[in-house]
Design brief:
single chain, about 350 residues, alpha/beta, 3-stranded parallel sheet
């Protein structure tokens, strides 16, 4: 299902921040953090919110860790970034001379000290640190199992394309996302950098699509094959659209397109959304939405509804008032629902 989305900004930071957090200024919790806070986790041995980043051949778009931050929510709900390498989390293996039993005793002793510290000061972040130490200990077993794809059938790997065997690629991250969904990781976010094609668009957009199209389709097919698509919501979109007219000197292989926040497309699959639907329409110039606009607050309200959450009730009290992902806005777009 595709729909036309409207954002209010056309520069990267001012656009991607509300896409991730529902608010233009930094400091608010991101979507994944709100979801972790609202729904918890189904797998105690892996983080409830995982972030993976891949790069296009020309990746000049900055990404900030605050985009997957928990903001004013407790930090246990922030996204955990996995590295684009064979070892996605550093230092999971015990150093020489340290056994699993010894590590367990060390963490038990540290937890007792931290609990006494919490009794004295009452800082909730101390409890978060205890929980994170415990999570790291459990990840020593769960992460190696997660990234070991040797048991995946060749036919499945082939669906994702040749890059699936390359750690850090978008294709590889799509496969790992499916394996995380299987294991009950609540929210998985993939970033692919390099879409800012102000120049060399004919070559660069082909490269970006080659990176992403086949793996994205394979992920959906794979989720469906395993019976996971009905309760897994796939969201695919960017920070804003691009103009339909050219930017720069028009030559056969050297022109670009500028930022355009008035209208662009987001597509959704699975998880309670209506399949085969195109919702919203632009004018003849692709410049304004003329039918059924979906604001980012409406989109977030609808996504939360698909995930079983009333967006008006998912709140957190901070600095004297209740905050929520959609702030004081947002309407569920019922026409998008299956």
């Amino acid at each position: 299902m595709h729909h036309q989305t409207v954002n209010t900004d056309i520069n990267h930071d001012l656009a991607i921040t509300p896409i991730q957090t529902g608010f233009q200024q930094p400091g608010r919790p991101c979507f994944g953090a709100w979801l972790s806070y609202g729904l918890g986790t189904e797998n105690e041995n892996l983080p409830g919110f995982v972030v993976m980043i891949s790069n296009g051949k020309e990746s000049d778009q900055p990404l900030y860790t605050r985009l997957w931050s928990s903001g004013f929510l407790p930090s246990e709900y922030q996204g955990v970034q996995f590295r684009g390498a064979d070892d996605p989390v550093l230092y999971l293996s015990n150093p020489p001379g340290v056994s699993a039993t010894g590590r367990r005793r060390l963490l038990d002793g540290l937890a007792r000290l931290n609990e006494r510290h919490h009794e004295a000061f009452g800082d909730p972040e101390i409890l978060t640190r205890i929980a994170q130490y415990e999570m790291a200990f459990r990840m020593q077993t769960s992460v190696p199992d997660l990234v070991d794809t040797a048991g995946e059938p060749e036919s499945v790997l082939d669906n994702y394309g040749p890059d699936v065997r390359k750690p850090g690629s978008f294709a590889r991250n799509c496969l790992l996302a499916r394996r995380m969904a299987e294991r009950g990781v609540r929210f998985i976010q993939l970033y692919h950098r390099g879409w800012d094609q102000h120049g060399n668009l004919p070559r660069r957009i082909r490269e970006q699509c080659q990176d992403t199209d086949q793996p994205s389709a394979a992920l959906i097919k794979d989720l469906k094959r395993l019976g996971l698509l009905d309760d897994t919501l796939v969201i695919w979109g960017g920070e804003f659209g691009r103009t339909v007219y050219c930017q720069g000197k028009i030559e056969p292989d050297n022109y670009g397109r500028d930022h355009h926040g008035r209208c662009y497309t987001v597509w959704l699959a699975g998880g309670g959304v209506k399949p085969g639907l195109t919702y919203g329409e632009t004018d003849d110039y692709g410049y304004n939405i003329v039918e059924d606009p979906v604001h980012i607050h409406d989109l977030n309200a609808t996504l939360l509804h698909c995930l079983g959450i009333n967006h008006e009730r998912l709140t957190y009290r901070f600095q004297g008032r209740d905050f929520r992902l959609t702030d004081i806005h947002g309407h569920v777009v019922k026409s998008l629902l299956a």
